[in-house]
Write a structure and sequence with these properties.
Blueprint lengths: L1 H11 L2 E5 L7 H14 L3 E4 L9 H11 L2 E5 L5 H12 L4 E5 L14 E3 L4 H7 L1
Parallel strand pairs: 1-2, 1-3, 3-4, 4-5
Helix pairs in contact: 2-5
Length: 129
């Protein structure tokens, strides 16, 4: 079945969990930039809105960050939920890649962490990977 194949894929590849604003303006960034880049690097990649789950949304986010081999966080527009989830990933010692459209959206506390700025839109992100 499709669900079984999906589960098998998750078991055979490292998992990249993506946290970013839930906004249609970020669809291209995720679908054309982040997801293909992760898959090209050998990761199984998902965002929360692609998953089916029984627990609360917050429990699922915590669960997925804890399971992730890599967390990709888009800090564009200074979304407080994304900041909080990024802090949680850092607290767990996860490998985190930070992205932003605007370098001013990276808070002072995080500027020393590796981050990718894609001011040129999705084309800039594709070139970066």
């Amino acid at each position: 079945s499709v669900r079984y194949q999906h589960h098998q894929l998750m078991l055979t590849k490292p998992f990249a969990f993506v946290i970013m604003p839930f906004d249609v303006g970020f669809q291209d960034t995720y679908l054309l930039g982040i997801k293909p880049a992760c898959e090209d690097a050998g990761y199984y990649c998902e965002r929360l809105d692609e998953q089916i789950f029984d627990e609360t949304m917050l429990e699922r986010i915590y669960n997925q960050i804890a399971k992730a081999d890599l967390v990709v966080a888009d800090l564009s527009e200074r979304n407080p939920n994304v900041f909080y989830e990024t802090g949680y990933a850092h607290a767990l010692g996860k490998r985190v890649i930070l992205l932003t459209r605007n370098p001013d959206d990276i808070p002072f506390d995080l500027k020393h962490h590796f981050h990718i700025v894609y001011t040129d839109g999705i084309a800039g992100l594709l070139i970066s990977h």
